[in-house]
Amino acid sequence: MITSVITGDIIKSRTQTNQDIWIEALKRVLSNLSTSKKYWTIYRGDSFQIEIKDWFTSFECALYIKSCIKSINGLDVRLAIGIGNKDFEGENVSESNGEAFIFSGETLESLKKEKQNLRIKTRDSKLDEELNLYFKLALITMDSWTKNSAEMVKLTLENPNALQSELGKLLGINQNAVSNRQKRAQLETLLELDQMYRQKLAILS
C-alpha cells in the first residue's frame, strides 16, 4: 500500500520565549490533517511526523503546515515528504514502517545539512529531481512569507471554497486586501504547482 509521510522540525523554536504558542499551533495543524492521533506524533520537542494516507495531497499538506508555522513571528519549518510502500502499521506512526517512513526520515536529515526547507523522495529518482527543482523555486517565495502572507495562505487552504470577500470578513480586511495578500504569497502559482504535483505522482500508482 502506497502512502506518504511528512517528517519535519521547527526552525528557531528555541528562540521563542513562550514555547506553548507554537506547540499548540503544531498540534492543531496536525490534528486538522489527521483526525486520529495514531497517525501523527511530536517528538524531541520540536520534531514531528505525520502520515498522509491520501498521498496526492502531500504537497498541499506541506503548504498548510508551512503556512501555520510561519503565521507565528520568527518561526519556520523544515519538511521532508516521503512517498512509498507501507510495510507495517504499528499502534502509532512512530512504530509503523516502510519506504515512505524511511524516505521521509532520511530526507529530513539531508535537509538539515543543506539548509533547505522542503524536499521529496520517492522510488523514482527522475521524478524526485524534477519536483525538487520546483520546490527549490517555490521556496524562494514560501521562505520569505510574512506573517500576514502565511496567515492568508492558511486561511485560504482551510476555506477552499470561500470568496475573497468571505475571507476578508474572517480577517477584518476588505476584498482588495485579501487579493493583494494572496498575490504577495504567490498563492495562485503554488496551487498550480499543487495540481501539477498531483498529476506527476500518478506515475507511482
Structure description:
This protein has helices at residues 19-33, 58-70, 99-114, 125-142, 147-158, 164-171, 175-184, 187-201, and strands at 2-11, 40-43, 47-52, 76-85, 118-121. The protein is α+β, with helices and mostly antiparallel strands and 205 residues long. Helix 6 (164-171) crosses helix 7. The chain starts with a strand and ends with a helix. The relative contact order is 0.15.
Summarize the structure.
With 205 residues, this protein is α+β, with helices and mostly antiparallel strands. 52% of the residues lie in helices and 17% in strands.
- What gap, in angstroms, lies between the N and C termini? 10 Å
Helix tally? 8
How many DSSP E strands?
5
Overall structural class, as computed from helix and strand content, comes to: alpha+beta
Question: What strand order characterises the main sheet?
Answer: 2-3-1-4-5
Percent strand equals 15-25%
Low-confidence stretches: none
Shape: globular
Q: What's the pLDDT, averaged over the residues?
A: 94
Radius of gyration: 17 Å
What's the order of the H and E elements? EHEEHEHEHHHHH
Give the proportion of residues in helices. Answer: 40-55%
Describe the sheet with the most strands. Answer: 5 strands, mixed
Chart the SSEs and their pairings.
Elements: E1 2-11, H1 19-33, E2 40-43, E3 47-52, H2 58-70, E4 76-85, H3 99-114, E5 118-121, H4 125-142, H5 147-158, H6 164-171, H7 175-184, H8 187-201
Parallel strand pairs: 4-5
Antiparallel strand pairs: 1-3, 1-4, 2-3
Helix pairs in contact: 1-2, 2-5, 4-8, 5-7, 6-7
Keyphrases for this structure?
5 strands, 5-stranded mixed beta sheet, alpha+beta, single chain, 52% helix
